[in-house]
Amino acid sequence: MFNISKITRKNIRDLTPYSSARDEFNAEAKIWLDANENPNDTGLNRYPDPYQMDLKNAISKIKDVNTDKIFVGNGSDEVIDLLFRAFCEPQLDRAFIFPPTYGMYEVSAKINNIEIVELSLKDNYELPDIEVIKNDIQSKGLLFICSPNNPTGNLYPLKAIKELADNFQGLVVVDEAYIDFSNSESAISLIHNTLNLVVLQTLSKAYGMAGARLGMAFTNPQIIRVLNKIKPPYNVNTLSQRKGVETLKNKEIVKLQVSQTKAQREMLITALKGIQCIKKIYPTKANFILVEFNDAQTVFTKLRSEGIIVRDRTKQIEGALRITIGSPEENNQLIKTLKQL
Q: Are residues 60 and 46 in the same domain?
């Protein structure tokens, strides 16, 4: 039986959260004299909704999840940090990752003084069988699964994710920043019956809002209440909330752009297969391709000299560069430059 108290840090359980002016009164009023705001209407002189209800209502319709199971953060990175601060006791609990993966899990763990435990993936970068790691994860803390994974681009089966959550005493965090570029079902479908599961998504990638910093967490209401308890009072600004609602209403535009990205992804993979300096192209369900080169450093330097910036992942996977799917013009220029090598 899931017990939120057993995995929440004692100081967080005992914490009396800060009560903002908008916590104490959030209805309509004629005159606002409670929050020491500038009374002159600039469009931004009032504090934002601390719980982003307009935005959550828009997300709820898109994701088919009740608003009490949604948390909105200043990017997914804020949510990751809050999870550490709420559910990991420094120097006692641990964070589990499957490298190579998104680097902020380890950085956030170190910032919060939490030990990182690296679990090995299979040779094809798939999740290991649960029996192989069952004894290794017998502790509280956080277990991170990035799916589709960054930088490898592969998607993990929901059955494997469910097995991990069922065998872990802490929270399993599934980071689905790139899920919109796959054709697979989201792990959100698991949160209703898997109470120790947190699913992260973002408006940064498919929705084109990286500059607005809007990350989302989907999980059971008990965990949402803890996150609301410790987040900054007004963690998501008014401009980002308004733009998020506007973008979510334009779902047909987003759908078209995702479709275009997928088509360009397949075109780029096909074109890369004919380039001699390439050693391996990884299968991908994301908006990027991981590529191994015979001489990655030469390729990286050449691309940079032509003003084309890709991500060097050679420290994670030997000879590998990560290439984001760009516009048709950008992708064609990339192919042209690589062929020159």
A: yes
CATH of the domain at 15: 3.40.640.10
Q: Give the residue from 210, 229, 249 where a domain finishes.
A: 249
> 1 pLDDT exceeds 90?
no
Give residue-wise pLDDT tens across range 182-233: 999 999 999 999 999 999 999 999 999 999 999 999 999 999 999 999 999 9
CATH value at residue 266: 3.90.1150.10
271 in the same domain as 243: no
Q: Which of 249, 223, 225 lies closest to 171 in space, CA to CA? A: 223
Question: What's the pTM value of the predicted model, to 2 decimals?
Answer: 0.96
Q: What range does the domain containing 47 cover?
A: 4-249
What's the domain count of the chain?
2
